[in-house]
Specification:
- By secondary structure, the chain is of the alpha/beta class.
- About 30% of the residues lie in helices and about 20% in strands.
- The protein contains 16 helices and 17 strands.
- Strands 3-2-1-4-13-14-15-17-16 form a nine-stranded mixed beta sheet. A five-stranded parallel beta sheet has the order 8-9-10-11-12, sandwiched between helices. A three-stranded parallel beta sheet has the order 5-6-7, with helices on one face.
- It is globular and about 60 Å long.
Amino acid sequence: MSLVVTGRVVTFDPRRAMFDDGAVYIGDDGLIEAVQDRADAAPPGFDAAPHVASEGVVYPGLVDLHNHIAYNCLSLWSPPGRTEPYTSRAQWPRDPSYKGDIHDPVATLGAVAGKALLKYVETKAVVGGVTAIQGSAKTAHPYEGWLVRNVEAETFRTKQRTVFQSVRTLATTEDFAKARRHLRDGQAFIYHLSEGTDPRLVREFEDLRTHDCLGPHLGAIHCTALDDPQYAEWRPSGGSVIWSPFSNLWLYRDTTDVLAAREAGLTVCLGADWSPSGSKSLLGELKVAELWSRTKLDGALTAEDIARMATCNPADALGWSDRIGRLKPGLHGDVAVMAENDPEPYRNLVRSTEHDVRFVAVNGEPFYGLRSLMRDGGATRAEPIRVGGRERAIVLVYPDVPDADMSWQQVVDALEGARRNPRAAQARLQTAIAGGEEPVRLLPDKPWDEPEALSAAPAVADHVPPLDSLATDAAYFDAIERSPLHGGLLDGLRDYYR
């Protein structure tokens, strides 16, 4: 289906960065055919195309380059009695509350209501303008085309994967050899590196260097223990740093030296990490990046710098600069439209909240937005959804995609049913399996959670907490202000939502 989206267009294309009154033309193949002034003659074949007159600012869809989506049904987690920050990611999973508060609920919902959980957390991403997300590799069936692009599974219909990842710390010769092969073949390799503030974590960087695993398609997540000497060594190889400031500040009371990374020529991208210690979506992470720049970096990062970390930078880091991340002819028609509340368009994106998201499309297919714009965009099977007290519409059912057959109300009902009576949900699941069905499972992908999650019949939790809200709300800010972990570094976040 072809589509025309008009408004103020921010392209991130150096040939022309802005159209104050522009139009994006997306063809039947899902590719952008033209980006131009609205007054110019339309390309051939668009006379009858659906037309979304957004009255907002049109951006490329946001690309979240670090997440663990299975956990995004949970709210912020502050371990009881903990007042001091951690120094390594090896510490907080050992907290006595972790299993009951995080592992057990996610393992339960992922096992007994995996399809509904996947739809819920993808919906949570798309209501924040995200059209591609990393961290969904642990599904029983990876699909292209459910809602947002799943970075590890996305092949752009070529059936050839180009992105690989590891949440485990590489340890053996074969581990490093496998990563090195991906990088030498021009594939992206996304890797948690030196997460925490303990100086001993630098060893993980030294191991990558020793095994010749530094390179232009390495996407290193966190890197919070690295300093100028490591970035100086890294400089000749190139690559990218994936920054998750909220989660870093929440757990470690410090974050990545993004200025040093940038000075070393590395591409800096953003990722929301996961909801127990992060933003609800990448849209929230933009504000944390701006808050950190303003309060700790003397404003060294401009709004444009931060906006690039969520659009063109991650596309470049993945080797997808000819696929997504910009609005230019030949790229896929992934767009996110925000209300215009600030005359400076990059600051407008950084300051936008879920209430400001007017329209989201992937490959020119309308998936979420204002009911009026979804209707104008020709969305079929759109259904109502309420986000942060606002009425919106979303498309979750697509007959051509396997298992994309649950409406929003069915998603919520399935999750709430599993929450209220997980053992009954488990019994229904076992009956279905006995009948020959292969249910969708969404598995916890943290290394310390994998063994039990991968078992044939994981135990179910006695208690599953309420689902985390889709949009940032008062409960979120109250949780931030109650927690002593971050030492007040995140207290200013509420101001962005007033």
